[in-house]
Amino acid sequence: MIRAVLFDMDGVLFDTETLGFQAMSRIASELGRPIDKAFYLTTLGVPDADCKRIYLAALGEDFPYDLAVDRFRSYFSEYSRTRSLPRKEGLGECLAGLKKRNIKIALATSTVRALVNDYFAAMPDIGRYFDALVCGGEVPNGKPAPDIYTAAARAVGCKPGECLGVEDSFYGVQSIRTSGARSVMIPDLLPFEPRFQPYVDDCLPDLSGICPLIDRLNGWAQG
User: Fold this and answer.
1) Is 3.90.25.10 the CATH number for 17-82?
2) In 3-state terms, what secondary structure has residue 220?
3) What is the pTM of this model?
4) pLDDT tens, 188-211?
């Protein structure tokens, strides 16, 4: 029985991955180290400490990564204050449908809480659906370790095996799988590839497929 859904945020709830590449590409160029999209894709869903190692290995140990991240977060914080983040297809329908079914909803994101709070403050119609938030730096080990998904399950009073996790990144689906939750991938910038197969139970085109999937798994009439 699925009792809760645990969502990643960037690329799953909000269409921020393309915005993120545009922002970081500009910031890195301003700091004298241009990056391309192929490189940026290797950083998706990666905890900050690991992401820093990737950047320094590729751009040099003297690359001011912390400064770049500060500018990146400031960009998104300002963006969320002046306009709504683009929402992924089916988001509102999905969250409303889960509440109708009495399914708990938690966030399990590598993004820091301050930025998450900015996003949800700007979109109270979305934030109000969430029963718990677990954010970057709040668990001992980031994705692909299971910590953030086990913490999110615990935060809504469920065992991981009673939860469905939703991700768009390789590290993310590994994190769900090792936590013991059911793993769902909704591809964003990264397509579903053979390397994802061992870590994904269901691959859906968009969020509108979440409620019908839960209906099927729980043996409920479609509705």
Assistant:
1) no
2) coil
3) 0.91
4) 999 999 999 999 999 999 999 999
